Amino acid sequence: MTLLLHLADFNERRWADGFQAALPERRVVTRADTVRPEDVEYIFVWKPTPDAFDGLSRLKAVLSLGAGVDALLRHPRLPKNVPIVRFMDEDLTQRMSDYIVSQVTLHHRLGTRFKRDQQAKRWVQLYPAPAWDASVGIMGLGNLGLDAIRHLKVFGYRLRGWSRTPKAVDGVEVFTGEAGFDAFLQGTDILVNLLPLTPETQGILNYETFSRLKKGGLDGEGPVIINAGRGGHQNEADIVRALGDGTLKAASLDVFEVEPLPAQSPLWALDSVYITPHIAAASSERTGVAYFSKVIRDFEAGLPLPNVVDVRRGY
Ligand code: NDP
Ligand code: OXD
């Protein structure tokens, strides 16, 4: 069995050494090694090049380093009928919840307002309302959305959630699909995006969405958005416009339409925007190797593949 690593932006050799140690009985190769494509049974990918899958005629599974598979599903030569296993693990999930909690608490405690006061050397004792006065709306109630909710609950926030199919989540007011979107937005002060990028969710963070959010919450400093999904969810021109006319008061953005965010983007200069370079939840080498080695070992032993992407649904 040969496992081929195809990782842009990552040190393929180091990951390969990790896999080789975890799977000593298998052959683990990188793009720098010589390999016959027909020998490859598993490919572990991040940002595959156009020829990444060429000649891989005996592929058993595509293993995605990313938890989000939008780019992979758009690959023009992605093999059909080969299952795709996406990364899902505690370490990545915890990091994402850390990010969400840090940004929600920043905005609830009026971070932008006090930053501006500091810059102006202004001492104004505005006391932020308690957490239960702030309503946090999570778009996407999957692995990451539900874990963020679990962490936010401890702080006492009023929680709302939005998903494609109906679900019950303890302590959370849940809204479903197109029909529930407006009501979901109308009661939300802090909008958190943890959706996968699909044709249905592309561009969902737009001016129309922002203008439907609850007005005047967070002591008059809301509404705000936090996007840790994908850059394709947001219309950046609309974010700039909404921040300019007060429809939005602040935005935390981890992902962008174009990454790296171009130097000429107006977002860089806005003091109500909190930019991080797509680092909300990295996949760690240690947990990634452990997770995918187990996936391969279990599958070879006859167990089903976990976390298989539903290609028709797009996530
Ligand atoms: P999941 O697949 O576990 O959950 C997706 C959720 O989104 C589900 O609740 C699903 O609804 C909901 N959803 C999908 N389509 C729609 C729709 N059209 N309308 C309403 N709800 C919808 O994904 P994860 O939680 O694991 O990950 C979410 C995304 O986070 C990833 O796809 C990736 O893009 C992003 N991500 C970003 C990272 C970063 O560093 N910034 C790191 C890791 C992931 P239902 O439950 O009904 O199916
Ligand atoms: C992911 C990511 O999808 O890092 O895992 O964005």
Overall description:
This protein is α/β, with parallel strands linked by helices. The protein folds into two domains: 104 residues, NAD(P)-binding Rossmann-like Domain (Rossmann fold, 3-Layer(aba) Sandwich), CATH 3.40.50.720; 186 residues, Rossmann fold (3-Layer(aba) Sandwich), CATH 3.40.50.720. It is built from nine helices and twelve strands. Strands 8-7-6-9-10-11-12 form a seven-stranded parallel β-sheet. Helix 2 links the parallel strand 4 and strand 5. Helix 1 packs across helix 9 and helix 3 crosses helix 5. The mean pLDDT is 97. Oxalic acid (OXD) binds next to loops.
Give me the CATH architecture of the largest domain, please. 3-Layer(aba) Sandwich
Overall geometric form: elongated
Secondary structure: helix percent: 25-40%
Number of H/I helices: 9
Are any ligands bound, and if so which?
A: NADPH dihydro-nicotinamide-adenine-dinucleotide phosphate, oxalic acid
**CATH topology group of the largest domain:** Rossmann fold
Spell out the key features of this protein.
about 325 residues; alpha/beta; Rossmann fold; seven-stranded parallel beta sheet; five-stranded parallel beta sheet; binds NADPH dihydro-nicotinamide-adenine-dinucleotide phosphate; binds oxalic acid
